[in-house]
Amino acid sequence: MAKAVVIGSGIGGIAAAIRLAVKGYAVTVLETNASFGGKMTQFTLPGGYRFDAGPSLFTLPHLVDELFTLANRNPKDYFNYQRLPIVTQYFWPDGTRLTAHAAADDFAREVETKLGIPQKQLHRHLEKVARLYHATANTFLHKSLHKLDTYLSPDVLKTLPALPELGLTTTMHAANARAFSDPRLVQLLDRYATYNGSDPYQAPGTLNLIPHLEFNIGAFYPQGGIYAIAESLVKLGEELGVQFRYKEPVTEIITQGSRASGVRTAQGTYAAEVVVSNMDVVPTYRKLLPQQPAPERTLRQPRSSSALIYYWGISRTFPELDLHNIFFSQDYQQEFAHIFQIGTIAEDPTVYVNITSKYTPEDAPAGHENWFVMVNVPHNAGQNWEELIQQTRQQVIRKISQALGVDLEALITVEKVWDPRGIEADTSSFAGALYGSSSNNRMAAFLRHPNFTNKLKGLYFVGGSVHPGGGIPLCLLSAKIAADLVPVTSAEVQA
Predict the structure, then answer these.
(1) What is residue 489's predicted lDDT score, i.e. its pLDDT?
(2) CA distance linking residue 36 with residue 196, whole number of Å
């Protein structure tokens, strides 16, 4: 059997390992940490509070199911999920509260009642983004943007007519402000820039297709939480013969001429015909390929945002909250200017609260809730994070306390914090940037690192720092693209 080595067991690396095993490779996954998952890990805090450490939103679940069916397994034997009846609860500083129902008709009625936007107007918008998504996804998300045959595919014939409506020449915010007059709905739609760590006042209008995933396809909750995704896929990988080796960081990608021929760790050398890096592309080149010429223009692209997360045990329940909750800032543009231009956190940040105990009661003690409280922040550039953590904590507590009419500080029973420094140290995400580079210009998608390199045969890349981007669905698609580029047989590998 031809051998493959995967560096890192984030969701992209796990998915790539499964796809390569199905292709007939003997796959070894080498992971620095004590367990799998990358950002998709879990932990518990004293008192019985369980948390998913990183990703909290699950869309396009068929991309997970696909891995099981590819291996001739029934997905439901391993992994189950449900569609959320409510996507998000939104709170604005003026006291407005809006429930984003999963059902489009219910959501449209809510928007009309609370924000005064006619239902037909919202329906037309959602129908438009659905049409544009279906016209472009196969070209821009499911295939490499760096291969000629992508542009010779019949899918391009569907994509070309949609290009004028994609918003390539405008920003997300400008497009949303033209579409809707109410600034609260504009802010709600601008928020989707954060799904890949970008700024809606700079990012191209093409990112306005992201809401299609939630409002037209749906948001989902995995039984057992987000960690269950990684857990079920690792189980599948092990059944397929994938070897997962933990606490064994790769120190070098070995090359012979113009080919990657394996990797080296402190424990030994692993020869392989195929090497897949699930590590952020910057440390992949800087640390594992120091003698190879690096794609400097790509590596120097502006970083995406990071996150400051407070994990709180809360000593009561809040019926007005759901799984996903957003408490908006007063001045959204100023908030993003602080993140991407000033490199700090605004005094009034938008706050996201995820509460998995709403769907998995055992994630918190009876009568309590587990709050994952996140603020979008700049990547690590040497800021005084200890000071920012304390300042932001007080601002977050003040904001939520005012919105809910409680003394939130008095309800916090236990706490843990994850900041950009920890994210970088724990996940090898360069500078703690969650999504590699940002998408704050119209060419960003094409400047993101491809899933292969022409410099070294046999070397491939997956994960949030490469095409098509970060987040669970795109990381899964990066594995699909990379695996499709890998030869099927050892004879093809040698050729």
Answers:
(1) 61
(2) 22
Report residue 256 as tokens: 């012979």
Closest of 199, 241, 190, 222 to residue 61, by C-alpha: 222
The residue extents of the domains of the chain are 3-38+58-78+227-300+448-494, 82-124+169-222+303-427
Multiple choice CATH, 82-124+169-222+303-427, 3.40.50.2000, 3.40.50.300, 3.90.660.50, 3.20.20.220: 3.90.660.50
* Beta-strand runs (E) in 8-91: 26-30, 42-45, 49-52, 81-83, 86-91
Quick one: how many helices (H) and strands (E) in the chain?
18, 19
Both structure tokens of 154: 């019949």
Q: Rounded to whole angstroms, how far apart are CA atoms 304 and 196? A: 7
What is 3-38+58-78+227-300+448-494's CATH topology? FAD/NAD(P)-binding domain (3.50.50)
**Regions of the chain with pLDDT less than 50:** 491-495
* Gyration radius of the chain over CA positions: 22
**Tokens (6 digits) for 234:** 């690792």
pLDDT of residue 492: 47
**Cβ 5 vs Cβ 275: under 8 Å:** yes
Tokens found for residue 460: 């491939």
CA distance 455 to 441: 26
User: What integer pLDDT is reported at residue 494 of this predicted model?
Assistant: 45
SS3 372: strand
